[in-house]
Design goal:
The complex is a heterodimer of chains A (127) and B (360). Chain A has 127 residues and is of the alpha+beta class. Chain A contains 3 helices and 9 strands. Chain A has one domain: RNA polymerase II/Efflux pump adaptor protein, barrel-sandwich hybrid domain (OB fold (Dihydrolipoamide Acetyltransferase, E2P), Beta Barrel). Helices cover 15% and strands 35% of the residues of chain A. In chain A, the strands form 2 sheets. Chain A has a 6-stranded antiparallel sheet with strand order 1-2-3-9-8-5. The longest helix of chain A is centred in the C-terminal third of the chain and has 8 residues. Chain A is globular. Chain B has 360 residues and is an alpha+beta fold. Chain B contains 8 helices and 19 strands. In chain B, helix 2 packs across helix 7. The chains are: A alpha+beta (127), B alpha+beta (360).
Amino acid sequence: MNFPVALKYTKEHEWIKAEANICTIGITDFAQSELGDIIYLDITSETGSEVKQGDVLGSIEAVKTVSEVYSPVSGKITAVNTGINDNPSIVNTDPYEGGWIIKIEISDKNELNSLMDSETYKSQIGA
Amino acid sequence: MKKTGFNNIHKKLGAKLVDFAGFEMPVQYEGIIAEHKAVRESVGVFDVSHMGEVEVSGNDAFEFVQKITTNDVSKLEIGDVQYSAMCLKNGGIVDDLLVYRCHDYFMLVINAANIEKDFKWMQENKFGDVELKNVSDDFSLLAVQGKNSLATLQKLTDVDLSGIDYYKFRFGQIAGQPALISHTGYTGEKVCFEIYSSSDPEKSEALWNAIFEAGKEFNIKPVGLGARDTLRLEYAFRLYGNDMDESNNTIEAGLGWITKTDKGDFNGKDAILNAKENPVKKLVGFIVDDRMVARHGQEIYSSDGKKIGIVTSGSFSPILNKNIGLAYIDRGFNKTGSEINISVRDKKLKATIVKTPFLN
């Protein structure tokens, strides 16, 4: 499994790519593998709305199970990857690029310090 | 955790393994949808060695099986298989099972999670000259399912597989090993076989490898318990512990067709007759009008907000590309075509009661 060093990670298995004030967020390779075939992304938070770190952004339906997606940071949602629902398996096959889920304009960059680097995340999941 | 004779193979193939009824079993290899489609389009192989087998012999074996099961065993010739159920006196379902009529004994095939419970219950209900043997650990069981299963297996046996009709079986050699070859399955595929053979891991692995070599030209795939569940649900086959248990009877579970109340006395008959006269709920199929999946245990409401039922199974159907499920719905609300609302987290999913099976 692949955990790019350029990304940050949460214990709920989201990844975060921080570029300037914009954080791109998705679920990790480990998360997609645990969920199995993903069939639907139900993001309940809308573009333009404000979210807090830890808020539920929506849920991911897999064949076997469903899992919630939490916001790793606080800020304003600037984009949702609604295209995923035309081809949900992209979250399985390309979790860090085509399978990105949401973009948030971060309101407090200090929150990034609370996230894990790839080595810490890997040791947490026993990879 | 118990391991089947194929455990090393599952590990080598990188299967995701889970504890299922005390067995370390593969839930998936490549992915549920790919495995599901392999079975529908060509052929797939399942390790279902966790299933239990009980041999019933003795002069009163026939009367005993007739008494503890709901279907009519007198209809069985040697070489026939019958789907049936065992019920408590109050009609509650102890387990569903397959009854194999062999030359001088019956083999009952029961669910892995129920092996101990069933065997104990059978012993408690034993009468006359009946011997019960729990032979669950003696067998490996592979389900080879899909339209190319016959062509795959025919390469490995002299038994004319096309001569074994649906729900019939034969004893014979397969890949040089003695086996019971059964034209049965839990996928809904018409061409489907289940092979009972030695549980010895070396022999099990040799059989697995021979089947995969023979099926190579058909792109044969290993299939895990995940796809076993989605496959059976498309045909509305009940799953014990989800769709039925000791709190419902065969009539409520929609298994009236295996409940022969005219065959004489059997365990649970009076309660079942009463349930036929005074139905309170019924297991029905539904299709969800939403991309969210309804899942086991979720509550169901009528359009005016009354709680009328509960989801027992729910999944995405890879073939219909829709979300389907089974549910117990109260009497008066379970007509085909009725709209229901399924409570999923903070939402109500709209669904429609439909005729089953979902696939034909």
